[in-house]
Hints:
With 354 residues, the chain is an alpha/beta fold. It contains twelve helices and twelve strands. The model has no long low-confidence stretch (mean pLDDT 94).
Amino acid sequence: MSRTYSHILVTGGSGFIGSNFIRFALEQRSDMRITNLDALTYAGNPENLSDIESDERYTFVHGNIGDDKLVRELVANVDAVVHFAAESHVDRSILDSKPFLETNVMGTQCLLDACRHVWSENSDGKAPFAAKRFHHVSTDEVYGSLPLDQPEVMFTEDTPYDPRSPYAASKAASDMLVRAYEHTFGMDCTITNCSNNFGPYHFPEKVIPLFVTNLMEGEKVPLYGDGLNVRDWLHVVDHAEAVLTVLENGKTGETYNVGGNNERSNLELTNSILSIMGFGEEKIRYVEDRAGHDRRYAIDATKIKRELGWQPTRSAWPAALEETVQWYRDHEDWWKRVKSGAYREYYAKQYKAG
Length: 354
Ligand SMILES: NC(=O)c1ccc[n+]([C@@H]2O[C@H](COP(=O)([O-])OP(=O)(O)OC[C@H]3O[C@@H](n4cnc5c(N)ncnc54)[C@H](O)[C@@H]3O)[C@@H](O)[C@H]2O)c1
């Protein structure tokens, strides 16, 4: 049975996927209000939502998901939480894992506890979590790494967890906490584990916007190791649609894998970008491999397709990659401000970002 939500709290809505989700949800649901709680870390940029800032259904709150008092105030006014906020970059987790545990694990715990207490205190006591849902956004990286020589093997929802980077370990821990709150307190929770996203407003430390913007600046692209690591690529709006679908139609306590049917090696990805932008392999700079670099991720998304009717309709290459490259060509001001850090100075005045 499909549910409707009048007011949802989105965490991390000023980042890449959260901002695309907010824009998509407001477009699709004319009677939905959204409050976006975001700490504006280096990855959070309110400019990602400048086109909807004046929409009266949208409210921005600058704050941390680990701020117990603030989070309790916010969850009291909503009927669902969609939790994107995270430290999200594997390379940064290798340099320093502490912020990953603070936000991804303890921040998730703070949100879950706020929902558990506030939603049950505000209910009639009989069905404390009726019509309230906590949706947690997670990653396929919790499942570990697949071999290159068995292309038929993919991650399903039953694949045992085997996180191998500090980032993946922190996301695996947060998934487990969500499941534990569902089981122990009877909270209504759902989880999605998705593959690598691409599309507009992607912070240019991640491979696609980094490579496209490097090439636009006349630089080479740094390719890890032998370039044969394989990822599945999912358009961010396909992902936003999957999250909205699970929020409204997913079964309590269930996990859904979300993928784009779009597996490529990093070398294939690089060559596709070079070709779209009119460059050759001389623009590749091979660099030392990432420590513990997982070889292959691949998603079996049969469950969400069969049970909820979701399909990726925007992820197919080359068209989706060409459109994405064009978006960065058309939004040079945006990524130049992000790369130089200038966007932070501007928004620091408006939002007092640290
Ligand atoms: N990008 C991908 O390809 C991908 C793939 C699978 C899963 N995910 C998951 O999707 C979610 C969103 O990823 P993304 O790529 O948009 O990340 P991002 O780094 O672009 O954005 C993260 C956002 O969270 C905010 N944030 C960080 N710490 C916070 C805190 N303590 N309190 C409040 N806000 C905080 C940041 O300011 C930023 O706006 C994450 O949970 C990530 O693990 C991402």
